[in-house]
Fold each of these.
Amino acid sequence: MGSLLLAVIYLIFISLGLPDSLLGSGWPKMQVAFNVPSSYAGYVSMTISFMTIISALLSPKIIKRFHTKWIVIVSIFLTILGLLGFSVSTQYWMLFVIAIPYGLGAGAIDASVNHYVANHYSGAAMNFLHCFYGVGAVISPYIMALALDRARWNEGYRWTAFLQTGILLVCIISLPLWKKSESDSDDEAIKDSAGIRETLKVSGVILTLIAFFAYCAGEATCFLWTPSYFAGTRQGLSDGLIASFGSLIFGGLMIGRLISGFISNKLGDRLLIRIGIAVELLGIIMVFIPDMHYIFTAIGFVVIGTGMGPVYPAIQHMAPTNFGKRYSAAAIGLQMASAYVGSTFMPMVFGVLQQLVGIAIMPFYLLIFAILNISMLEMAYRQIALR
């Protein structure tokens, strides 16, 4: 039964990834339909992220009060409402209203399922879980592309909502599996879980929040600015080739998490993170090295993504071990909020910096956050050992 439930959980994370790529892939047409500047996508994205941060911060109280299975059901339902709302929006301002359930659903399901897997499954399961998030994020741009080819951008959101509805039905049918995998001790541990204020006082928690912020700042900067880096530092590349470079980091993340899924149980989370960040630093060095063409630099970005791959899942999976089950729900919720703050604001900070000094500073920017990430984690390990 545990394996069957894990398969359902992987499907849930596919559903979590599905909405995340739609705005970017559909915005060129949405922008025309709403008659707004291209930059206005950022405001919608920030609204979704803001609601996700709120949801992540509320997740400890939600997890304490409701079972994970019900949080999953309600969260997927909220994302379906968001997707359908986007599909019927005719004015730009409507997107901000719809972004509320859209973001709330994503944050609650992310924190609750990560907490559940961290407490009930191995590090391998956590890495594979985040691989399946990537599957969802890869599928949705193709859904939007098909909609733009056959119909309109609205249909991309509507078809994704239909797919989410199918996943929701599977989750409803699988509700008995959750009951069989839960014990009375699990319920008692959840009811006894600590709040955010109490958890912030635990040794190592704040340092891991800074580490999570740093990790997601680097990851999101790569997602947004990698094509622009090639456009600004290489001459003569076609628009199509430049656009394709946006998948380099994402592909690396998938590779890193897939490999980590097979070796994480043997190496352990801490060693896996250290190896991952070492690989990330190697990739950054490769980007630093002058390359007359682009192949070596492109490989460097894939290596960066591969190194980043195990870091996010491993930090989440360590929470019960590092801080105890009493604090794990709040710690993971805080980590999710910190992650979304980093991924929301730091790519924008880089955008301002690159306008002032040039896009070539990108590897320096990534290096700062990689060093901050590993240094904060190592300091956290020392604090935890002294507790």
Note: The chain has two domains: 2-181, 199-386.
Amino acid sequence: MEAGGFEARQREREWFHGLTVPPGSWTVLRVDGRSFSKFTEARFEKPFDPRFGDLMVETAQALMTEFAAPYVYTESDEISLLLDPASDWFGRGVEKLVSISAGVASAAFTHAAGVPAHFDSRVWLGTTAEDVLDYFSWRQADATRCALNGWCYWTLRKAGKSASAAGKALEGASVADKNDLLFAHGVNFTELPAWQRRGVGLYWESFERTGFDPVRKAEVSATRRRVRVERELPMKDAYRAFLGGLLQPIGSGSRRTL
């Protein structure tokens, strides 16, 4: 058996290895915690624990740095990582993008938390920057919905209801019903921390750094870049305008215009 031919036939069976993200497309990698409902219930306060929120932000920052992402958004146990349309990470190979993003998230969270945790990953594709605004608006709406449901469920659980009874009590309940339920237990949903209701955004910002030049014996300044963690994100149209400002400098051409 010819070694080269044998190897070639085996590589042909890697059916999805050649699948790539189209050049110039807007790409989001979304990583989600695997079985995090049980994982978090055993280790963190419910419905929201600032320690867990900080771990997700730290994990998001690790992904942002690894992929040089212009924007990252995290809510609950998921992280959405926006890639620059001009990026060519791993030849835009889908297998590489999802496996490495899941691996980085799992390693970063595990290292920060001190306990094993696992993430999976998927790819979202958009044609225009407007698609990107739609995507992140969708994820923020999901954050608000999940936050309201979570607060209602755990408020009922802490009031003595079983898991099944709490779930049944929320079946068919409207947003107004859920807000009334929380208000009856002394919780005003609109006054809860914004990061719980709207998620957290990370992006790059420039700043001036002052130093001392020993040769010239004078103070000098230089522009540097750092990650900004925004826990007070705006909502709806204001959020879209905020994101639009971040996306505007990225790329050029009709496919990327807002």
Note: The domain at 16-256 is CATH 3.30.70.3000 (Alpha-Beta Plaits).
Amino acid sequence: MKGSEDAALKARLKQLIVTETDKQVDPEQIPDDQPLFGPRSALELDSVDGLQISMALQMQFGLRIEDPKEMRRVLASVNTLADFIQPA
């Protein structure tokens, strides 16, 4: 099953994002397909948040992404992150 189809994985990722960025938001309110960064983002995450999330992903999932462009692509939304972690 592709990560974007796995509700449990996406719930875990949303909780990780909220915890690591200290956002006062209900993880269930984070849209799966909305941008996590940038002007259209409901969370208003910045580069420091991205670093914190990437470090947490490394610790919890063993993921290490060195290329900043790849990291931006992976962290585009909850769905893209889930698909990266759990490809089809």
Note: The chain is about 50% helix and 0% strand.
Amino acid sequence: MHDPELYITCAVSGLAGLAMLTTAGLSGWRGWLSLKQQELGRHSQSQIDAPALPSAASRIEMADLKERIRKLEAIAAGVDL
């Protein structure tokens, strides 16, 4: 019932399985890092080629600032809105 060969076999099999899982995980991690590096390289290259478009939030903020300036100019000129 207490066969030491069985315990050794189970331990070695478990370690082999763990080694395979670790190798597969490491390979996947390296592939994912490589993909992200390619995306960053492509993204930085496209920023060099073309000017970046402003985001929607910055366009809304600019429109708000222009509206405020227009109102202040109207107040300075004595015009009621």
Note: The mean pLDDT is 87.
